[in-house]
Amino acid sequence: MRVLIDTNVLADVLLGRDPYYDIAYSILTMCADKKVYGYMAAHSIPNLFYILRKSMTKEERREVLKDICQIVKVEGIDSFKIISALDNVDFDDFEDCLQEECAVAVSADYIVTRNAKDFVSSRIPAILPEQFLEKYKDIMQT
Asked: Is the pTM of this model over 0.85?
């Protein structure tokens, strides 16, 4: 099972955001335990670096993002993905379209996001974190 984890789910863990933290943490644990192959889009890193600025120092942000990179693989963004996303008129949000491009590139089964409605045009189905855990809770047991 391969999943691309959207920036908002990663931020839930890094910021300890309630009520989302526990579910997001469980998904990252599945990735860390290699029960699920987790990926994130490369542009999630600078987005998170910026999002975390109010709660962490630069040094803390660097360390925590390096830690995340040990848990989930980073899928790069190249000119092909950018052009393809720019050509894709089915997405209102360019950043979401880049997430989808990265999910396609890694042959993800799902994009795990709290904004599944933003991915209705996606070639990869989007799933809410709680739906993913409910659907694949048996993976947690093994």
From this structure: yes
